[in-house]
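Hi Q.,

Before the meeting this afternoon, I wanted you to have the adenosine monophosphate prediction in hand. No need to reply - just skim if you have a minute. The sequence and ligand are here:
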Amino acid sequence: MDRKIYILLGAPGAGKGTLAAAISQEVGLAHIASGDLFREALSKGTRLGLEAKKYMDKGELVPDEITIKMILERIARPDCDTGLLLDGFPRTLEQAKALDEALSKNGESVTKSLYINVSDEEVVRRLGGRWICRGCQTPYHEINMPPKVKGVCDACGGELYQRDDDTVATVRSRLDVYTKQTKPLIDYYDKIGKLGKINGEGQAEEVAERLLAVVK
Ligand code: AMP
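Predicted structure with the ligand bound:
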């Protein structure tokens, strides 16, 4: 299969979900977000969802074995044939290697990993005011990107909610996990010449333009 496969790398709160939602349609890529897949499974009460919740509530990573299986199944579906924008996966070296291995079996490889660079202070500030639509998962921010009507999604009219794992203690642990387990991936993709860096600070539209310039 000759499809483009992009990975969005960056800290929680770097804006990966917002950016992916903003550009995926325009560039014809399926937006696959591992966190959304876990939350969806949980809202349906499946075994996968209940298992994932144990880790998500603590801000820890769901074990590689479970996560890798879920993503590999998801990216094999027909809606991914036109290309992929992976958001939140891979998050460990194990996951990155498993993805490479699975793709190479189909004669495919990652096109580029796009690192969205945002300072620690900005990340903490952003996660604090984050609201998400229950219906279509569009993220908003109280200050940076408020909805037109408080508590209501501009896109679909759905109800906005705050994630359970956006509390101060969990945010701290998610940032720790990011530093220890996910940051090494920046080096991993750099070494194989597949890293693109994007300045993630500033208005959402500006950052989306920077990202589009790399992806298009
Ligand atoms: P996110 O929506 O990407 O911030 O993910 C929310 C939570 O889902 C994370 O804190 C993890 O508990 C879990 N999760 C999402 N993606 C992964 C992944 N690639 N590996 C392990 N756990 C993940």
